[in-house]
Design a protein that fits this description.
The complex is a heterodimer. Chain A contains five helices and seven strands, in the order βαββαβββαβαα. Chain A is of the alpha+beta class. Chain A has a domain of 97 residues: Alpha-Beta Plaits (2-Layer Sandwich). In chain A, the strands form two sheets. In chain A, strands 3, 4, 5, 6 and 7 form a five-stranded antiparallel β-sheet that branches. A two-stranded parallel ribbon of chain A has the order 1-2. The longest helix of chain A has 17 residues. By secondary structure, chain B is α+β, with helices and mostly antiparallel strands. Helices cover 43% and strands 7% of the residues of chain B. In chain B, strands 1-2-4-3 form a four-stranded antiparallel β-sheet. In chain B, a hairpin with a 4-residue loop joins β3 and β4. The N terminus of chain B is likely disordered. The chains are: A alpha+beta, B alpha+beta. β7 of chain A pairs antiparallel with β1 of chain B, so a sheet runs across the interface. Chain A: Belongs to the universal ribosomal protein uS10 family.
Chain lengths: 163, 341
């Protein structure tokens, strides 16, 4: 079972923590992800299609809005090798490796929702399939960039400023 | 396997303790169920000490067990499938009640059946992730999710309240190592209109930053990967932003030497165009023998202001139909040229 940490900030699931003993709420403010983009790579398109059905259904069930699901074009890496161990240069053999892609773009996730969804989806990633997760986090401007400090600092000598 | 070598040594070695040895080995699971059925056979063959008897032990006719029907025949139609395949597992033909066929068909035949089908076993199956199973998992996971704040329902509102965007990439792949050196790259994006900058600070920041600023989208992009950890790269990115911000507010002594070539936009005041226009107007007035008009009066007059606006628009925005026609009108008014059509 996942022992998850549910962070504060929402008033919707007030029933949840009371009935579920595994959920714990902390006071930290949640980090917000404007967009989470999943790029899944595999050698077999049928496996990726099944995975797409699974990931989209999981997102829908957990209440995550799916912005776009598309298949970037496949890349094929081909190389030609000599067929024989010694001489016979005219006889070669060619191999190719096909990589199919699947891109899922999700919008507006909180950090706990993202953690839950990504862990669920990654634990069920089939063997031989790779994934890249690009997260875009949004933040406020930090305190020290609000105002230039030169106004608040006391009068400093010329030499100190130069060094 | 230790039992096998023990038996071989016992046979090659002393024969006195043979009976006891054989009995002990047979009781241990040697050939599975065949071991128990072969007990009387072994005892009767004690007299033969050849090597062949060692191999023939498990192959008596009694070792053929009765054929048990597969589990599929005992499955109900409305069974709970998530208990048959709760986790990812290989395809078991006796557990999947579907007449699946996979593989290249024989000549004038059909693809091979599911019994003993390697192709079906090799491919990853999603039998553990049927829609009802997914719904069950998500229902259990729903408690751990939180809702997105409803006030931030559009990109513009996110931009307004949270101007800085930080992009990180995680990599998952099967291999000997879970680490990926590309995972430490952090990209920081911010729009300069959201930072507290005045005119001089903004121009200085753009000059400091160079390639990383995009004029069309007004976006500053800082990509850091010089530290080994992602958190360090993020801290370094924020540090860079802080330093840039504060440095751009400072005015150095050498900044007063800024020449016309360094200017980002065209300023008409104290430019050659202003000088030429004023000179021309003064000479026109002198030739008409009007009393000396001062420069300030000329600058304040409508025609000169119109000319100034059209020249600034031409230089900053480039040559468009609109700009060119405005310039034409303003020059005509300035020099009092009446074009008789």
């Amino acid at each position: 079972n996942l022992v998850g940490v549910r962070l504060a900030g929402s008033q919707a699931n007030t029933e949840g923590p009371k009935t579920n003993p595994l959920v714990s709420i902390s006071d930290e403010p949640e980090t917000l992800y404007k967009r989470v983009s999943l790029l899944v790579k595999g050698h077999d398109k049928a496996v990726l299609d099944s995975y797409e059905y699974f990931a989209v259904l999981a997102a829908k069930e957990l209440g995550i809005s799916v912005e776009k699901v598309h298949n970037p074009p496949k890349t094929v890496e081909r190389f030609t090798l000599l067929k024989s161990v010694h001489i016979y240069k005219k006889h070669r053999v060619q191999y190719e490796m096909r990589t199919h892609y699947l891109c899922l773009e999700l919008k507006y996730l909180t950090s706990s929702t993202a953690a839950v969804y990504l862990e669920y989806v990654q634990r069920n990633l089939p063997e031989g399939v790779a994934m890249e997760v690009k997260k875009t986090k949004i933040e406020k401007i930090p305190e020290h960039i609000r105002e230039p400090i030169w106004d608040t600092l006391p009068q400093v000598e010329e030499t100190e400023v130069k060094s | 396997m230790a039992a096998v070598s023990g038996v071989a040594q016992a046979r090659a070695g002393c024969r006195a303790g043979l009976t006891r040895y054989c009995r002990r080995v047979v009781l241990a699971p040697f050939f599975g169920s065949a071991a128990y059925s072969s007990v009387p056979a072994v005892n009767s063959r004690e007299g033969q000490q050849t090597e062949g008897s060692a191999r023939r032990r498990g192959r008596t006719p009694q070792s053929v067990r009765a054929h048990i029907p597969p589990r599929t025949e005992r499955m109900a139609v409305d069974q709970d499938w998530s208990s048959v395949y709760p986790t990812a597992a290989t395809f078991k033909p006796g557990s999947v009640p579907l007449p699946v066929r996979m593989g290249y068909p024989v000549k004038r035949g059909v693809p091979p059946a599911k019994e003993g089908n390697l192709e079906l076993m090799k491919i990853p199956n999603f039998l553990h992730l049927t829609p009802p199973a997914i719904k069950k998992h998500c229902a259990a996971l729903k408690d751990f999710c939180t809702e997105w704040p409803s006030a931030l329902d559009s990109d513009e509102k996110c931009e307004q309240h949270f101007p800085i965007e930080i992009e990180t990439i995680d990599y998952i792949s099967s291999g000997t190592s879970i680490r990926n050196p590309k995972a430490r790259v952090v990209t920081l994006r911010v729009k300069l209109s959201n930072l507290n900058l005045d005119d001089h600070a903004k121009k200085k920041l753009i000059k400091l930053v160079g390639e990383r600023y995009c004029k069309d989208t007004d976006m500053l992009t800082i990509t850091t990967d010089r530290c080994p950890l992602r958190r360090q790269n993020y801290d370094y990115g924020i540090h860079l932003l802080t330093v840039l911000y504060h440095e751009s507010w400072k005015t150095e002594t050498w900044e007063s030497e800024k020449a016309e070539e360094d200017m980002e936009e065209y300023i008409w005041e104290n430019s050659r165009s202003q000088k030429n226009a004023l000179d021309t107007l003064i000479r026109i007035k002198a030739s008409e023998n009007v009393s000396n008009v001062t420069k300030e009066e000329l600058l304040a007059s409508e025609v000169v202001k119109d000319y100034r606006n059209s020249v600034v628009a031409l230089k900053n925005e480039g040559e468009t139909e609109n700009n060119m026609s405005r310039y034409k009108e303003s020059v005509k008014k300035l020099l009092n040229i009446q074009v008789s059509l």
